[in-house]
């Protein structure tokens, strides 16, 4: 009899542990989801604020947040490319200047 009780008690306890684990995982997912929703809302508010404060960044863009974001990302990427080009040009000019200084010192 004792052996049967031991064998039947263990699966019930395992079931409780599985249920607790699933509940804990569900609670973690709910918390992560809530955090993501808050972050997304904050991000949308920042885009809307940027739209309001600097509407010239979004000429021809309607109210769709995704389009605004795509346009903003494109603008930032273009600016990053321009910065890289300017840095290369700056390096070349600096090198040219150093060469001219060396020639003048001779």
Tell me about this structure.
The chain is mainly alpha-helical and 106 residues long. The chain has 2 domains: 1-53; 61-106. Helices cover 88% and strands 0% of the residues. It contains 2 helices and no strands. The protein is elongated. It starts with a helix and ends with a helix.
List keywords for this structure.
106 residues, mainly alpha
Order of helices and strands: HH
Category from helices, strands and their pairing? mainly alpha
Using only C-alpha atoms, the radius of gyration works out to 31 Å
Shape: elongated
% residues in beta strands: under 5%
User: What do the pLDDT scores average to?
Assistant: 79
